[in-house]
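Hi support team,

I submitted a single chain yesterday and got back a structure, but I'm not sure I'm reading the token output correctly. Could someone confirm the output below corresponds to the sequence I sent? I've pasted both exactly as they appear in my results page.

Thanks,
R.
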Amino acid sequence: MALETQVLHTPPLQGIVLRYGPLYGPGTGAEAAKGPGGVHVDAAAQAALLAVDRGAPGIFNIAEPGGTVAIDKAVRELGWDAGFRLPG
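Hi R., thanks for writing in. Yes, this is the structure output for that exact sequence:
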């Protein structure tokens, strides 16, 4: 929380915070989500790219739908898709 506060409230920075669920997919040691709220590494990377390209300052939750966190803001404002996967 302290780091988020610094990112969001340290002028002249205009900070964006991405809160990721547990990662799974290539290179993570987990091929599937281990419970609700996980996020595939491809979708996580897409969220970072979209945040740099389109994000307004603030906090965005990055996780698959149906978990305990609301991801609506990331979907609506960033155009993020939890089902995104890199080809091949």
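A quick pointer for reading it: Residues 41-54 form the longest helix (14 residues). Let us know if anything else looks off.

Best,
Support desk
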